[in-house]
């Protein structure tokens, strides 16, 4: 014979003391797991922290190499189907951006990253928003100023790459 008792099914012949023991174990499991789940949500998991650190390192490497007109990091970290939207609203693919850097069409004397935030969407995608203070030229025009960038990273073949980025010049106040 079976009767329902709270969340457990109590069968005739089973002791209530045994059910209290199982209830105690379940309660302890929840009490132990809940703070761990909450802490993981607040601080991010170790994997999320690793992704954030990797993405920040890539962004810094890209910035360090562009001021040297070195395209090696861009060749490595831009996806083959990369789409960039510049502060002027013009789109570029990977080969166009690499050509601009190599030819000196885009020439940055300095670029400093600040205010970087990485949002890890899942194991294969992250979005980065950051600010740069740049000094340089593009197509012969001065592009010195403050910019806000948004980069979408995807993980392909075990490597993080930028699939899309977009830059906006911050208006001078």
Question: What would you say this structure looks like, in words?
Answer:
Strand 3 (78-85) and strand 4 form a beta hairpin. This protein is globular. By secondary structure, it is of the alpha+beta class. The chain has helices spanning 16-43, 46-66, 72-77, 94-103; strands spanning 2-5, 8-11, 78-85, 91-93, 106-122, 125-138, 141-142, 145-156, 159-169. It contains 4 helices and 9 strands, in the order ββαααββαβββββ. The strands form 2 sheets. Strands 3, 4, 5, 6, 7, 8 and 9 form a 7-stranded mixed sheet that branches. A two-stranded antiparallel sheet has the order 1-2.
Secondary structure blueprint with pairings:
Layout: E1 2-5, E2 8-11, H1 16-43, H2 46-66, H3 72-77, E3 78-85, E4 91-93, H4 94-103, E5 106-122, E6 125-138, E7 141-142, E8 145-156, E9 159-169
Parallel strand pairs: 3-9
Antiparallel strand pairs: 1-2, 3-4, 5-6, 6-7, 6-8, 8-9
Give me the Rg, rounded.
26 Å
Find the count of extended strands (DSSP E, 2+ residues): 9
Task: Figure out the total of helices.
Answer: 4
Structural class: alpha+beta
Provide the helix percentage.
25-40%
Share in β-strands:
35-45%
- Taking all residues together, what is the mean pLDDT? 83
Taking the sheet with the most strands, its summary is: 7 strands, mixed
Order of helices and strands: EEHHHEEHEEEEE
The N- to C-terminal Cα distance equals 79 Å
Gross morphology: globular
pLDDT < 50 runs, ≥5 residues: 3-11, 36-43
Short description:
It is built from 4 helices and 9 strands. With 173 residues, the chain is α+β, with helices and mostly antiparallel strands. β6 (125-138) and β7 form a beta hairpin.
